[in-house]
Amino acid sequence: MRHRSLLILTTALTTGALTLSACGSRDDKGDDGKSEGKQTTVVIGLDAPLTGDLSALGQGIKNSAELALNNANKTKEVPGVTFRFRALDDQAQPTSGQQNATKLAGDKQVLGIVGPLNSSVAQSMQQVAQSNNIALISPANTTPDLSQGKDWKQDKRKRQFSTYFRTSTTDEVQGSFGGKYAYEQIKAKTVYVIDDQKTYGVGLAAAFTTKFTALGGKVVGTEHVNPEDRDFKAIVSKVKTASPDLVFYGGEYPASAPLSQQLKDGGVKAPLMGGDGMYSGDYITLNKKSAGDYATSVGKPVEQLDSAKKFIADYKTAGYKDRYEAYGGSTYDATWALVQAVKAVVSANDGKLPSDARAKIVDALNKVEFDGVTGPVSFDKYGDTTNTLITAYQVDAGQWKSRYSAEYKG
């Protein structure tokens, strides 16, 4: 994909810095990074669940990041720089994410990290990234606390980590959108709210509930489950007794798929609704009675975006066996943002990487602007994406079908 870069650096980056090998490895001998054949290797790391229950999403993230770097190398997007890719598996576990962040940050060639998928994993990685002045940019995290602090609900917002960015909008936006969509368009007046007790699920359910009740909806029951549970008979009985118009689940598809099926097997007629953690093809594969269920997800279906046509074609040509899933487009954009930040830093330093390249890349990310797969890409003062487009989907004829997309304004 050809991107129209609009990078603006308001201050001149340091000149007279060390040679290209200061923060990257030289593939050829010599000290002129702009000379023919002289290349610097820059490594972009990735952390995602590449195995385990959420591997469908993780593999889509990995492939999309790799595709962006391959395209950058193919088109020589950053003259004098060759990108390499290092992907690590966190299995959706915070401890593994922290260990992976430490490994990647300890490699001086790694100048940025894409990921993670899970907000709870991000919480374990943020301080490591901050301490090492390395950019951490997620295509999927949605918990507002990660960027704006725990007091964001009281509108006391403060950026938590200067090195943290994301190309997915927050649960404040997604959950509120879901609550409004449920009340105004699904026409649900009562809801039973369930969450998986994880950072993402709790936050999403809370934002949904706040908006739904503010509009006049009523919560007729709440429940908390273990994300590892697959037997929901006790909950099915409670939900059936409450007889809601809709069941909302804050969590991810490995648990929501069997929950939905068991609810319907138990005689609950209300559809299940969730967020982007539920929006996966595997949700339908795992749930024989998924028809009619809803999910919201960040952005618009890439299949409907002219800006995504080349991404989709390139992904297919690359021959990846896994789908790009919900976060393919936002991952490509997150990775491309790092590429553009590296480009800005190199361009401002006479074609060379400065010795403090990591810090300069973080600074450049704050100013990056380009037309990406998912639309215009830029970041606000918290490191959050400025794109608040959300889409509601429904399972129809064995597929997720988009029902409504809009920029969420409140």
Describe, in plain words, how this protein is organized in 3D:
This protein is of the alpha/beta class and 410 residues long. Helix content is 36%, strand content 20%. It is built from twelve helices and 15 strands. Strands 8-7-9-10-11-14-15 form a seven-stranded mixed beta sheet, with helices on both faces. Strands 1, 2, 3, 4, 5 and 6 form a six-stranded mixed beta sheet that branches. Strand 14 (389-396) and strand 15 form a beta hairpin. Helix 2 runs parallel beside helix 3 (119-131) and helix 11 (328-347) packs across helix 12. It is elongated. The relative contact order is 0.17.
Outline of this structure?
The protein is built from twelve helices and 15 strands. It has 410 residues and is α/β, with parallel strands linked by helices.
The CATH topology name of the largest domain reads Rossmann fold
Instruction: Give the CA-CA distance, first to last residue.
Output: 33 Å
CATH superfamily of the largest domain: Response regulator
Portion in beta strands? 15-25%
Shape: elongated
The strand order across the widest sheet is 8-7-9-10-11-14-15
The level 1 CATH classification of the largest domain is Alpha Beta
Going by CATH, the architecture of the largest domain would be 3-Layer(aba) Sandwich
Major beta sheet summary: 7 strands, mixed
Count of extended strands: 15
- As residue ranges, the low-confidence spans are 1-36
- The H-and-E topology, N to C, reads as EEHEHEHEHEHEHEHEHEHEHHHEEEE
Tally of helical runs: 12
Whole-number count of domains:
2
